[in-house]
C-alpha cells in the first residue's frame, strides 16, 4: 500500500472514533446513564478500529483488512441501512449519525477494494478475513455472556438470551428457535461477503485485463 492510502484510511478511522465518542456521550446525556446496549463493538463499529490501526500493521495484515473491509465491511454497512436498530432512534441527531456512518462505511469498503485491486492480492485473504470476522464474533459472544447478567447487551445481534429482531431473520425464531436464527444470520454474513468477494474478483480480473491491453497498445504505438 502507498503511504498516502495508509494515511487516508487512518484519518478516516480517527474521524469515525471521534463521532463514536460523540454518540456515546450524547446517548449517556439523554438517558442519564451509560447504556451497555450501545457498547461500540458491533460489525459496523469494527472499521473505525481497523482503519485507525492501519499505520501499525504490516503489509500482510493490511491486505487482510482491505479484504475484510471490501467484503464484510460493505455487507455490514448495507445491512445497517436496510434494517439496523440504529435507524429507530427518536433523536434526529442519532438518526443522521446512523445513516452517515453506514454510508461512509460502504464508501470505505469501496475505497479499500480499489486499493486492493492495485496491490498484490493473495488468494487466501478472504479466508483470513473470515477468520477475523469469526474471531470478532467469538469476542462478542464472550462479552455478551459476561456483561448480560448485569446489563442489557447484544453485540453482533448474537446474544441467545435476546430474541433476534432483525428483518427477515426474526421470522425464523418462532419456527426454528432463536439460536438457529442467530446461526443463520452469522452464516449469511459470510455468504453475502463471499458473494461480494466474487464481484470484486471479477472486477479485478477485468481491470487487470484492460490494463494489460492498454500496455500492449502503448508498446505498439511506440514501436
Automatic annotation (TrEMBL):
The chain crosses the membrane at residues 12-30, 36-57, 64-83, 89-110, 131-151, 171-192. The keyword Membrane applies. It comes from the Bacteria. Keywords: Membrane, Transmembrane, Transmembrane helix. This is Integral membrane protein. The keyword Membrane applies.
Amino acid at each position: 500500500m502507498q503511504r498516502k492510502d495508509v494515511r487516508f484510511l487512518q484519518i478516516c478511522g480517527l474521524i469515525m472514533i471521534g463521532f463514536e465518542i460523540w454518540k456515546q456521550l450524547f446517548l449517556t446525556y439523554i438517558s442519564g446513564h451509560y447504556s451497555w446496549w450501545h457498547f461500540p463493538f458491533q460489525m459496523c463499529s469494527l472499521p473505525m478500529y481497523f482503519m485507525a490501526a492501519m499505520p501499525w500493521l504490516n503489509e500482510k495484515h493490511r491486505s487482510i483488512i482491505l479484504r475484510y473491509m471490501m467484503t464484510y465491511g460493505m455487507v455490514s454497512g448495507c445491512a445497517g441501512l436496510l434494517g439496523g436498530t440504529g435507524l429507530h432512534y427518536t433523536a434526529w441527531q442519532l438518526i443522521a449519525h446512523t445513516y452517515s456512518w453506514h454510508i461512509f462505511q460502504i464508501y470505505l469498503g469501496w475505497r479499500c477494494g480499489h486499493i486492493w485491486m492495485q496491490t498484490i492480492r493473495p488468494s487466501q485473504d478472504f479466508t483470513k478475513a473470515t477468520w477475523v470476522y469469526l474471531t470478532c464474533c467469538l469476542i462478542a459472544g464472550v462479552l455478551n455472556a459476561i456483561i448480560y447478567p448485569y446489563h442489557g447487551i447484544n453485540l453482533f445481534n448474537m446474544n441467545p438470551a435476546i430474541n433476534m429482531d432483525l428483518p427477515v431473520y426474526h421470522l425464523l425464531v418462532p419456527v426454528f428457535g432463536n439460536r438457529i436464527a442467530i446461526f443463520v444470520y452469522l452464516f449469511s454474513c459470510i455468504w453475502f461477503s463471499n458473494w461480494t468477494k466474487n464481484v470484486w474478483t471479477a472486477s479485478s480480473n477485468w481491470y487487470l485485463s484492460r490494463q494489460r491491453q492498454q500496455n500492449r497498445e502503448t508498446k505498439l504505438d511506440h514501436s
